[in-house]
Design a protein that fits this description.
By secondary structure, the protein is mainly α. The protein is 69% helix and 2% strand. Strands 1-2 form a two-stranded antiparallel sheet. Helix 2 runs antiparallel to helix 3 and helix 4 crosses helix 8.
């Protein structure tokens, strides 16, 4: 079969559809304070429909074989990226970030994914030789995130001062940090900081600068880092299906775009299903274990256990289903009513 290449028409349709859809998503949620289960479900359906529509275009315009390769890539990337949902939830829990700011952070996280996935596809499989060693580190981070969520489970106190937060302690020596969230901004100027300091004497800064990053930006960087780490696992898997760069990239992007909406479905459901968060915590430890085993297999030749993508997906879906069922059987008492979604 000949190479698919880079048809100008296909590139224009793909990026045009992505740009328009991402803009529609942002515009639709520009004033949203909290994303509901219904809204997130409708957007999830939209992204799935868009991926299927691109499949139909490839099938009609080119060949069924190209379309099937793309669809297989989408399905694989979707199953592998489900783990991201759990890590996203752990990161937002660690930063105490809720509501519309989550949407803003994930929106820009998707923009970053568009760029980084393109670089990964361009680099091919050579880049991923470093993945096994980095995987051990990321496995430890995911396990630590699960432990933090387990310890703070049921605590709904919002973080107002990030001066002692782990992200600020790690970064304030290399970049200026303003230790408070401010109007959903990623960066604020010195003038704004001075005005805020006049009204709040407890604000302490490690250094002076023209521009300060906020905890929202640090959370965005954590989200981007998690996406890059999971790309080390998913991108080579999709490349194994087809080596056509455009089809690989399209498959990954359509899968990742729907991930944000799926996150909000899961996040919204945790407000009503009291045992679902426990399932998420359990899955974080499973993800850490899986990353450790996969890295050990590549670095040390471990062959005592191989967790296939299908097995991993079944474990994730089964654990979430168990959390849902347990919430209906033992509804318990909610610690804090969050109001309408």
């Amino acid at each position: 079969m000949a190479h698919f290449g880079f048809p100008i028409e296909t590139i224009a349709i793909f990026f045009g559809a992505i740009a328009l859809s991402v803009f529609m998503d942002l515009f639709a949620h520009r004033n949203t304070k909290e994303i509901s289960v219904l809204d997130a479900s409708l957007w999830s359906t939209f992204w799935i429909g868009l991926a299927v529509a691109f499949y139909a275009y490839l099938w009609v315009r080119f060949d069924e074989k190209w379309a099937d390769l793309y669809l297989a890539g989408v399905a694989l990337e979707k199953s592998l990226s489900v783990d991201n949902l759990m890590v996203f939830m752990a990161i937002f829990s660690s930063f105490g970030i809720k509501g519309a700011l989550q949407h803003r952070i994930l929106y820009w996280g998707i923009i970053g994914a568009l760029v980084f996935r393109a670089l990964f596809v361009a680099a091919g499989t050579g880049l991923f030789q470093l993945a096994p060693w980095v995987g051990f580190v990321f496995a430890a981070v995911v396990a630590w995130s699960g432990w933090k969520m387990l310890r703070s489970r049921g605590e709904e106190e919002e973080i107002t001062d990030y001066s002692d937060h782990w992200s600020v302690r790690l970064t304030q020596k290399v970049m200026p940090i303003f230790p408070r969230l401010h109007a959903e901004k990623f960066f604020i100027t010195r003038a704004v900081v001075k005005d805020l300091a006049k009204t709040d004497a407890t604000i302490k800064l490690a250094k002076d600068a023209a521009v300060f990053a906020t905890p929202a930006f640090l959370c965005l960087m954590a989200i981007e880092t998690s996406d890059i780490m999971f790309a080390f696992d998913s991108v080579p898997a999709v490349i194994a299906i087809t080596q056509e760069p455009l089809l690989v990239y399209a498959a990954m992007i359509f899968a990742v775009l729907g991930l944000r909406s799926l996150y909000f479905v899961l996040a919204a459901l945790t407000q009503y299903l009291v045992h679902l968060e426990k399932a998420v915590i359990a899955l974080l430890f499973f993800i850490a274990f899986k990353l450790t085993v996969q890295s050990g297999e590549h670095v040390f030749g471990w062959d005592f256990l191989h967790i296939s993508p299908n097995a991993s997906l079944l474990i994730v879906l089964g654990t979430l289903a168990a959390g849902v069922v347990a919430s209906f059987i033992w509804p318990g008492k909610k610690v804090n009513e969050t109001g309408s979604a």
